[in-house]
Design a protein that fits this description.
mainly alpha; two-stranded antiparallel sheet; 8 strands; Transmembrane protein 161A; glycoprotein; membrane
Length: 490
């Protein structure tokens, strides 16, 4: 194996560029600060006094408590004719946003990870480098882990909130997804074709053989049960992390449709961007998709529209295209979220009574301060889905259908490539022989561990993970639509 091959040189170059260039040129920062997004500025106290028809009124004083005079906050009528000014978001404005640095780093890392993966795919297309380590797979794995970490960080923020029942909502949906995952585990492969059961069986057989070589005893049913319990727990955790992203997506989708009321083409694209979870869920339901496309009924005969390999390639491409479509509409969803400030002002005008000036300023400013949180909630599930698909293609021995690949060509599966131990000369001493024996044992163990994970296992696991992320988004976004359209109006 070439330790410092072309892939390693490229990945070191990209890592250096990301470290040196990101503080100056950042895609994540450009996405928010390119002038296409505008925020609503909160009114000053003088502007609110002028709208209320006052000339610098004095605040009412409360009685003295321990020698200290407390002042009541200045209030204005709720039905004042307030109109918010807008201003394009600049880099200086974005620096004060909550989780802005985490957002910028995550988006830039995901972009560079995708670039390295595309490079490795082109490299394996042009060069027969099956003995080299696939760096792109490692970058995709890290992106998946970082996506889950970012979602967990945002969920922790809701757990620390004391204003509402966000913690109860996350726990409720986590328990709901726990039940759904347990039901999915008992569904047969004839209906949900993840290939999880064959992959798990293959993994358990390889693990049992490996443990026997080490002199240990194992129970295959126990290993399967432990793996499924761990997978169900992971599904519940991911479902809890994706709860508020799904609810937020439903809200921004409805608001974006209202903003595009006079643009039917944009409305069509917004509806199309809301459908990817539904389409991805259906793609793995065998009677609806694969059986229909492979054996489509045409009168009394059945016609095969595509082969198994063509369907697998089609499924990969359709998910990638849908993710790209949703990414292209990021600006409209973020602007729809910023428009909540104007909506809140309009609702305030229809209410009776008075409201403090500080509360008006706080409500409007808080919406802008959480912009990066909403951006992470929108983009992290997309990055998680698309990189799971990339791992499914590479580790699952699938093809993009753009170039011919020889049978059994699985460069990315070799996560633990073996090396031939160096040959020893006749004059080597006993210490060198001991080192050689240790190297042989280590390489043999790595080869055995590598044999545990086969393309069959990767196909089942990453197919299920891709499908499950879409299920979580589908359930939470549909509940969000129902809540914001019916329950939220009560």
């Amino acid at each position: 194996m070439a330790v410092m091959g072309v892939q390693m040189v490229v990945t070191l170059l990209v890592a250096t560029v990301m470290q040196r260039i990101s503080p100056h040129v950042s895609f994540g920062r450009w996405l928010l600060c390119n002038g296409s997004l505008f925020r609503y500025k909160h009114p000053t106290e003088d502007e609110l006094r002028a709208l209320a028809g006052k000339q610098k009124p004095k605040a009412k004083r409360e009685r003295r408590v321990n020698g200290v005079t407390d002042e009541k906050p200045l209030t204005v009528p709720r039905d004042i004719d307030l109109h918010l000014d807008t201003q394009p978001i600049t880099t200086i404005d974005a620096l004060v946003l909550r989780y802005f640095l985490e957002y910028q780093w995550f988006i830039d890392f995901s972009l560079y990870s995708t670039i390295i993966y595309l490079f490795t795919e082109g490299y394996y297309c042009l060069v027969d480098a099956q003995d080299e380590f696939n760096i792109g797979v490692l970058w995709c794995l890290m992106t998946v882990l970082f996506s889950i970490k970012v979602l967990f960080t945002v969920m922790q923020h809701y757990f620390r909130s004391v204003e509402g029942g966000e913690r109860s909502v996350c726990l409720t949906f986590a328990f709901l997804f726990l039940l759904i995952a347990m039901i999915v585990m008992i569904v047969r492969e004839e209906y949900l074709e993840f290939g999880l059961e064959p992959g798990l069986t293959n993994f358990c057989q390889n693990l049992e053989h490996f443990l026997k070589q080490q002199g240990w005893q194992s129970s295959v049913p126990f290993i399967k049960l432990a793996f499924k319990i761990a997978l169900v727990a992971l599904c519940s955790f991911i479902g809890g992390c994706l709860t508020f992203p799904g609810l937020r997506l439903a809200q921004t989708h409805l608001d974006a449709l209202k903003m595009a009321a006079d643009r039917p083409m944009l409305q069509l694209l917004l509806h199309a961007s809301f459908l990817p979870p539904v389409i991805v869920v259906v793609l793995w339901i065998r009677p609806i998709t694969r059986d229909f496309l492979l054996h489509a009924p045409m009168g009394k005969e059945t016609v095969q529209l595509m082969s198994n390999s063509a369907y697998n390639t089609f499924r990969l491409w359709i998910i990638v295209v849908l993710c790209v479509l949703r990414l292209s509409l990021t600006r409209y969803h973020l602007q729809a979220y910023l428009g909540l400030a104007e909506q809140w002002v309009e609702r305030m005008k229809r209410e009776a009574g008075r409201i403090s000036m500080l509360e008006i300023q706080r409500k409007i400013s808080r919406i802008f301060c959480y912009l990066t949180v909403v951006a992470l909630q929108y983009l992290a599930p997309i990055m998680l889905t698309i990189h799971c698909v990339l791992l499914l293609k590479s580790l699952g021995d699938y093809s993009w259908g753009l170039y011919p690949e020889p049978p059994g060509f699985t460069p990315a599966v070799d996560l633990f490539p073996t090396q031939q131990p160096p040959t020893s000369s006749s004059d080597e001493d006993d210490d060198s022989e001991d080192v050689q024996a240790a190297v042989e044992q280590i390489m043999g163990a790595m080869s055995a561990v590598r044999s545990l994970f086969t393309p069959l296992f990767y196909r089942g696991f990453f197919s299920f993970m891709t499908w499950w992320v879409s299920v979580c988004q589908l359930v939470t976004s549909l509940f969000g639509l129902y809540f914001h359209q019916y329950l939220g109006a009560l």
